[in-house]
Design a protein that fits this description.
single chain, alpha/beta, six-stranded mixed β-sheet
Length: 247
Amino acid sequence: MASSIKKDQNRQRELAYIRQVKQTMKPKSDEERQREIAAEQAQHVQTTGEKVTNFLYYYKWRILLGIAVLIAGVFLLVNLIQKPKYDIKILTLYSSSEVNMEQLAGALNEYVVDLDGNGQSSAEIIGVSLGNSSDTTSRPKMISYINDANTMIYLVDEGIYEELVGQEPDMFMDLSELFPGNPNVDGQRYFLKGTVLEETIGAKNIPEELAFVIRTENHAGSHPENYDHAVELLTNVVNGVKTTDES
């Protein structure tokens, strides 16, 4: 009897041992593994260097993207700050003779009013040559500026003027009403030939029939001041009033 009881006890201990072994061999659940990882991390305190390294490793692409965006932003800001500021735009359209834009800008700046009060009178001279038929960008560029309400005063040669008024006869204002009796005014145009301005620029540097024209007031739309500035500039040119003499 005692021997039988002892055998049963031994059998129970063997079964308990087998169950214990099976439990240790059973795959650990995700929760168990996470608890073990957390326990290991709690035992090992990361140094500052390790934390930085881990951060850079896990977020390196976000960091690189952020740096790229920052560089692009700084580049645009610098360009904006350094971009020249002009008081007025003058669109120069020509098809035959070349125009010396540097000479033209230097001469016209003497008649420009300092609208932004920065102490400098300057005009942005936008030159578009339509004489080269292989240049496919010139005509779209011209159309873009013609549709710009900020560009109200043009310098055009004979061919360009005829083309523009052929498409839109009332495109420009009648300058004979603004400057009655002026020998250089012919309807919508004020010719540079024989003027002090032509002498300053140099007749060889501009087409012979180059003339000023001003868009009608309605082209300025919600910015009528652009029309006023154009008229003011041409009035200074016609009357020989140089704003650079004002001091």
